[in-house]
Structures are given as structure tokens and as C-alpha cells.
Design brief:
- The protein is an alpha/beta fold.
- The protein has one domain (about 15-325): NAD(P)-binding Rossmann-like Domain (Rossmann fold), CATH 3.40.50.
- It has helices spanning about 20-30, 45-50, 55-75, 105-125, 155-165, 195-210, 225-235, 260-265, 275-290, 300-305, and strands at about 35-40, 80-85, 130-135, 135-140, 170-175, 185-190, 190, 215-220, 225, 245, 255, 295, 300, 310-315, 320-325.
- Strands 1-2-3-8 form a four-stranded parallel beta sheet, sandwiched between helices. Strands 9-6-11 form a three-stranded mixed beta sheet.
- β2, α4 and β3 (about 130-135) form a beta-alpha-beta unit.
- The two termini are about 35 Å apart.
- About 40% of the residues are buried.
Length: about 325
């Protein structure tokens, strides 16, 4: 469990292992009489996938293939997969539909697309039934504040903005204020984690009730700009959030919004948390509980992290948007 947290498993039986451990996987599938597998585990740092692609192909593709082979050995033929809108690459239309051409621009997106293809082939050859969910920007937290984003290092916009509000970061840099959007900053589609969870339940039920393999976008269906996110965070927290404006970064599309109409039509799924203030308020509750006014992160002291010259930040689409300069 390289990036996960044992304490985040609040219910059910926990079995720790590695996806390359075929014997243990088959044993666990048999022992717990598993009917369907929901596969979330993957490396998801886009920048790292560029500098160390072998790590990503080994974990995201090869380990997933081992899991699928273990399922075959255990007689489990239903699979729900967490994919990403990063498989689309630079979009040619907004909103993005499921049949949009897929041309990922980084190894992370490529690994997810490879697994999607593997699932198609396993469906044809072995009658595996699968539901693929292409996430847009996962955000928010459990409304009760029990669970939230706890990455080390953190790369998502909303947690970084809230850490800035808590004084754990000196500022947020906005790269580009001259895009063809209402306020000049990039627009992204943020989807609440609880809405993602409900979609996975519906996807599992779809398969268990005899449904065919399907692919769905999971997004809010509307977008919020970088400035809107920061302004909303100010409204929710009541705290100043220092901003630094910088030049555009190459390859950053002005707008990424997904259509979730198919998920609504086929699964009956509708996101419940569609307002950015709601999403940020839930995240803020968790960050206050997790960090309070301390000066440390989950994985190390903030002072140590400040020694890095550049801290790259991405959104779930796989595009780089922000950078934290060194404290010097």
C-alpha cells in the first residue's frame, strides 16, 4: 500500500497484498466469495509517469493483467475499472462524449487506455463483463469529514488551495489568464467523491444484474475555472489565499468538461453535489480535521517540502496547471 492509508478502510475486511501476488489474489477471491471486483489501485502522478514510465506500465497495466488472470482462475467475471479522461488527450469537442477519439498525451493516460483495450479483448475471448468509468476531476471529501484527499505529495488543485488557506503553502500560481474562457483561466469539471462512489455501486449492480459491458464518463457536466475555485475557497474558508499569476504552460486546453448523460440514462446516476462551494466546503471540513493549523503534511514536514525548487501540480485530466516555487 504505497500511497494508501490503512485507517481509511472504515468497513469490511481488509487484506493487504500486492497485485502481482497471483496466489494470494486467487485465495482472497475464493475465500471472500467475490462476485465482482472494483479496481481503483493505480499510480496517478502524471509528471512521474513521464520521467519513469516503466513504473506506470508495470503497475497500472501488468499488475492489472495479473488481477484479471487471477479473477479468471477464481471464476470471477465482473469488473469495474477506474479509468480517466486523460485517455482523451487534447479534446476536439466540449462536452466530451464517450465516443470522443482517445489520444493520451502522457504515459499515465496511455496505461489506462491500454487496460480499457485489455478489457475489450477479455470480454471477447473470456466473456468478462466490465464497466469502465472515465473520471474527470475527483474532488471534495466525505461530508462528515471522516475521509478526504491525503496524498503525499499532493497534486490536486482544491487540496492545494485549502492547504494555502491553512498557511501550509505560501501561494498558488495560476498559469495563464488569457485563455478563451470567461475569466481567462482554465475550466475543469469537478466531480464529488461521494458521487463517484455512488456511480461505482450502480456500475456493480448493473453487472450483477446481467448488464453488458459499458463505458461511462463521470463528471459534473459543468465546469469551474481556476479563479472560481480559488474565489469559492475564499468564501468557504474566510481566509486569504495568495495567488501568483504566471505565463501559460504548453499543452493546457482551455476547457475540459465531460458529458455524463450516458451514465444517467443507463445507470440512473445523477451527481448530488454539483456546486463548487459544496464540494470545497466538504473538503475544507476534512482539511481542518486533518491538518488544523499545523505545519506538517501526511508524508513529511512542510519545511522539507519547501526545499524543492518546483512542485508540479496536475488535475485529473492529466494536464499540468500550477507550480509552487521554492521558499527561497
Amino acid at each position: 500500500m504505497l500511497y494508501g492509508h490503512r485507517q481509511a478502510v472504515l468497513g469490511g475486511q481488509f487484506v493487504q497484498g500486492h497485485l502481482h501476488e497471483t496466489v494470494r489474489l486467487v485465495e482472497a477471491l475464493h475465500t471472500h466469495r467475490v462476485s465482482a471486483v472494483i479496481h481503483f489501485a493505480a499510480f496517478a502522478y502524471v509528471g512521474e509517469s513521464v520521467t519513469d514510465p516503466a513504473k506506470y506500465y508495470q503497475n497500472n497495466v501488468v499488475a492489472t493483467l495479473t488481477l484479471l488472470e487471477s479473477m479468471r482462475a477464481a471464476g470471477v467475471d465482473k469488473f469495474v475499472f477506474s479509468s480517466t479522461c486523460a485517455t482523451y488527450g487534447i479534446p476536439s469537442q466540449i462536452p466530451i462524449l464517450e465516443d470522443h477519439p482517445q489520444s493520451p498525451i502522457n504515459p499515465y493516460g496511455a496505461t489506462k487506455l491500454m487496460v480499457e483495450r485489455i478489457l475489450q479483448d477479455f470480454g471477447t475471448a473470456y466473456n468478462l463483463k466490465s464497466v469502465v468509468f472515465r473520471y474527470f476531476n475527483a474532488a471534495g471529501a466525505d461530508p462528515s469529514g471522516q475521509l478526504g484527499e491525503d496524498h503525499g505529495p499532493e497534486t490536486h488543485l482544491i487540496p492545494l488551495v485549502l492547504q494555502t488557506a491553512l498557511g501550509l503553502r505560501s501561494h498558488i500560481s495560476i498559469f495563464g489568464t488569457d485563455y478563451s474562457t470567461p475569466d481567462g483561466t482554465c475550466i475543469r469539471d469537478y466531480i464529488h467523491v461521494n458521487d463517484l462512489a455512488s456511480a461505482h455501486i450502480l456500475g456493480s449492480q448493473h453487472l450483477l444484474e446481467g448488464g453488458e459491458s459499458e463505458t461511462f464518463n463521470l463528471g459534473n457536466g459543468s465546469g469551474f475555472s481556476v479563479k472560481q475555485v480559488i474565489e469559492s475557497a475564499y468564501e468557504v474558508t474566510g481566509r486569504e489565499i495568495p495567488v501568483r499569476y504566471e505565463a501559460r504552460r504548453p499543452g493546457d486546453p482551455p476547457m475540459l468538461i465531460g458529458s455524463a448523460e450516458k451514465a444517467s440514462r443507463v445507470l440512473g446516476w445523477t451527481p448530488q453535489y454539483t456546486q463548487i462551494n459544496e464540494i470545497i466546503a466538504h473538503a475544507w471540513l476534512w482539511h481542518q480535521k486533518r491538518h488544523g493549523n499545523t505545519s506538517s503534511f501526511l508524508s513529511g514536514d512542510a519545511t522539507d517540502r519547501e526545499s524543492k525548487d518546483v512542485f508540479d501540480v496536475r488535475d485529473d485530466s492529466g494536464y499540468f496547471n500550477f507550480r509552487r516555487a521554492s521558499a527561497a
